[in-house]
Amino acid sequence: MSSQYLTRLEEPQVPPYPPDKMAQGLYGSLAQFLAPLLIEVDTRIDKRLVRTLLQTVVVILTFRDRVNGLLLSEMGGYLDTPDKAPAGTKRLSRLLHCSKWSAELIRSYLWHRATQRLATWKQAGMDALALWDESAWEKPESIASDDLGPVRSSKAARLTHVKKGYYTPPRGPIFVPGLHWLAVVLVGCDQSADPPALACMRWWTSRGARASFKRDEQAKLLLQGVLLWGREVMHVFDQGFASSFWLGLLVAFSLRFVLRWKKDYQLVDEQGQRRAAWKIARGKRGWQQRLVWDCRRHQWVMASILALPVTHPDHREQPLWVVARRKGGLPWYLLTAEPIANADDAWRIMFAYARRWQIELTWKENKSELAFQSPRVWEWEPREKLLLLAALAYAFLLTLLAPFYTLLRRWLLRRYCHRTGRHCRQAHAPFARMRMALSRLWQSVPPHWESLSGRGQPTVSVTML
Fold this sequence. Notes:
This protein has 16 helices and 12 strands. Mean pLDDT is 87; it is low at 456-465. The relative contact order is 0.15. By secondary structure, the protein is α+β, with helices and mostly antiparallel strands. The longest helix is centred in the first third of the chain and has 24 residues, at 19-42. Keywords: Membrane, Transmembrane, Transmembrane helix.
């Protein structure tokens, strides 16, 4: 049959939801999402500041500006009408500088929600992964603050990447003032079953009165994860964590882990010889080949898998396996203590590490969509509170990716952020478009605090979805 007679499948019908009720219903969902935190904060501070906290998260979701998204004077105009922006800014400043509550409350709340999600996955018989990564909170034009230290700029590395047909960029890494940034994201092995859950975000510096060290901050975070989760999750780490010290911590706590090992770092093979990881796997035929999806390049690649028993020179008492994934780009050398008996076990380790791409999307969405690098707050504690409020906004947006909200997402994207491109239509989790649609919905139909408190308009239940 000629292709001119082939008809194109129509998109699913969009439910005829009323915008005003949907805007208020989403506002109620956000209040329900933050309810345990708001109740805890209400025992410590004035109820007017509690209301400001909820409205600040709404402002972060509504105001889209990468440069000024978390600027207090800009957010103050969204807390109330623009002509009352100074009053709104003063309310927000009082919330952030209030000494009766701390950023630790938000951190504890994020850990608690991630632990609840883990329990749900365990009851459903699903395995969970804790994705670890580090980045940099960059302020390249700020040098006055004593808290800022040198961080390696990822934005500069991206902008100076060699592009065919253009001049060669400067060589070597570029360091700018900023803070070091750690995050842990909890995900399930099945991407379509449930959205990821943000477990923790921490910022630290190498200068000033709060100076610390990289391994110290990572070890503090690991200890907290051990106390809450134990061996219930598999921890996934990139090459930045590859070291004898970090491997020793994982072995000492008897954790389940997948650690991408650097190819030049040495291991001990079956013959007892110390060799680089790539030399141990050199010349050995893969166990199996299959097509796997490359999330970074959005294409199918043919990959082979191979697993070899090894030990570490400093931890010879712990038997390890190095899983080598070759072809389809640079090879991966994944170090794990999980038992591997066949190719299926090796593929399971490889796919667990492949899920780590989710935390790379977390950095992209936080820096681009939620303007995490835009605050201009001088003191450490208020700055940390503001960043964690933005983290709460991100955690709420992740909940909207659940299958329960499929009809809601379809309605939001079709009515407030319509796109005609095939790539946008086929996106599994259109985070940026969903945030843009929610922003436009709340700008066109602002939600009302009075409806949640029982005054004014009646409360709208979200069970209509």
